[in-house]
Write a structure and sequence with these properties.
The protein has about 250 residues and is of the alpha/beta class. Helix content is about 35%, strand content about 20%. The protein has one domain: 3-Layer(aba) Sandwich (Carbamate kinase), CATH 3.40.1160.10. It contains 8 helices and 14 strands. The strands form 4 sheets. The protein has an 8-stranded mixed β-sheet with strand order 3-6-2-1-9-13-14-12, with helices on both faces. The relative contact order is 0.17. The protein binds 3-methylbut-3-enyl trihydrogen diphosphate. 3-methylbut-3-enyl trihydrogen diphosphate binds next to helix 3, helix 4, strand 7 and helix 6.
């Protein structure tokens, strides 16, 4: 099974609130059709959920956030999710909408529910889930990022490969020159002002990618604007992007 995260920056125009990049999503979906392994998709919030979570000052730490903000974030994620589901359907792929409330209880993943995702994918449906505002308990809520979902799912499903589709070519060692890091073998990449976007969005991705590779799986960062690279990564062809090489035992 292959796990793919479609980052908010690739599926939406982050500069403009509530603006999906439908052409880009459609282009990615067309390439996903060429993959003959079971797939599961996670998507981010971008100028939908992410935008509102910033407006309402909501974070990944469970707290008593503004309840209206929680509703707005959730609503906007459903809206973005629907756009993505429609594009999958229109291109004759069979998406299976799976909000994270289906497999999370508070901040804990529900193992049995996550195991079901593999069965759904093996049956030829494509489970599609997303980062969201979630109930934590004791009047608290929190933002569960799509990146964190990638770690939760990987831990239980052990996909053959994890792919993060980004709006960049991969992880750069230097932002100015856009010098690409091709491969990381278990080491933690140095994250500094030089290779980090201002919002710190990349920090979280790198953190989760490192976690997943330490569990033994390969994680690829690829440019979602060049979706043929996603297919190449999966088909073991010449790869363009950053690989976090997983340490397999034996
Ligand atoms: C979005 O998930 C979570 C919300 C703010 C609702 P991500 O944090 O994974 O989104 P992107 O990919 O960075 O936009």
């Amino acid at each position: 099974m292959i796990l793919i995260k479609l980052g908010g920056s690739i599926i939406t125009n982050k500069e403009k609130p509530l603006s999906p990049r439908k052409k880009t999503i459609e282009n990615i979906v067309k390439y996903l059709k060429k993959i003959d392994e079971p797939l599961a998709i996670v998507h981010g919030g971008g100028s939908f959920g992410h935008y509102w979570s910033v407006k309402y000052d909501m974070h990944t730490k469970p707290m008593k956030y503004n309840t209206h903000g929680v509703s707005i974030v959730k609503n906007s994620m459903i809206e973005l999710n629907k756009i993505i589901l429609d594009i999958f359907l229109k291109n004759k792929l069979n998406p299976y909408c799976l909000p994270p409330t289906d497999f999370m209880s508070g901040d804990k993943p529900i193992t049995n529910k996550i195991k079901e995702i593999e069965k759904i994918a093996n049956a030829g449906l494509i489970p599609i889930t997303f980062g969201d505002a979630l109930w934590y308990g004791h009047k608290k809520t929190y933002i569960l990022s799509g990146d964190k979902i990638m770690t939760h799912l990987s831990k239980i499903l052990k996909p053959r490969l994890c792919i993060f589709a980004l709006n960049e070519d991969g992880l750069y060692s230097d932002l100015k020159s856009k010098k690409l890091i091709h491969e990381l073998k278990g080491e933690n990449p140095i994250i500094s002002k030089n290779n980090m976007d201002v919002t710190g969005g990349m920090t979280r991705k790198v953190e989760e990618a490192t976690n997943i590779s330490k569990m033994g799986m390969d994680v690829f960062f690829v440019n979602g604007n060049k979706p043929e690279r996603i297919v190449k990564a999966i088909k073991n062809r010449k790869f363009e992007g950053t690989v976090f090489r997983g340490k397999r035992n034996g």
